[in-house]
Sequence to fold (255 residues):
Amino acid sequence: MDEMKNPNNPAAFLAEELETRKKRNPGYSLRAFAKSLDMSPAQVSQLLNGKRNFTPAMLSKLSEALRLSPKEERELITQAALAKSSIESVAIKKHKIKEDEFQLIAQWYHFAILSLSKIKNAKADSYWISHRLGITVNEAREALARMTRMGVLAEGKELKQIVEPISVVSETPSRAIQQYHRRILHLAADKIESVPVEKRDYSAMTMAADPTKIDQARKIIEKFQDEMADVLQNKNAKEVYVISCQLFPLESERK
Fold:
């Protein structure tokens, strides 16, 4: 996809996509466009004319049909929010959960299961998940049931995430969040010896730093992670990976 235009108007984005296809093929019709989106011509027409709202489910469907990257999908969701199309519940960037909900999914494998759902022919089967992630069948079964009850995963045989990418709403330290990161670090330590070097990358850099620039550094790390997801998370995804960045002071608080 080309760089997304009209960042404040999702209807305009859809119209420009249709216009681009018409330029490539003068005979291309609204009906053909609707078929490619798995929608009716009436639905597409209403979206283009502003008579139909861009709901989160609709945006997810469009993202899949247009093969948007995770970053582009988040931008499209943001477009709908900025357009203020009468739906205040449109998610911006990510599906956010409260910390009390995060307590239920603090174990690392919950997020790994969500990533497995992006792999072709992923199964909502505890034995299959147990084999893929190296967790027990009971852990896989309980995680599936928990995330289905929370409305994160769809019911059925197919492993399918039905909300936007998840982030946690918190500006204060949380024991559950700290526990999650500790487990990721333990996993990383275990994988040093068990994973071949050609399938992993471990690096570290120590530097003198300006403490007033830490907020800027955090934004750069977040952007880098989004870009990494764009590179790795595509239709050819076959395995689940974790990328974990740590930025912390080495000096004692007492100077």
User: Anything to note?
Assistant: The radius of gyration is 21 Å. Residues 1-8, 84-93 have pLDDT under 50 and may be disordered. Strands lie at 95-97, 166-168.
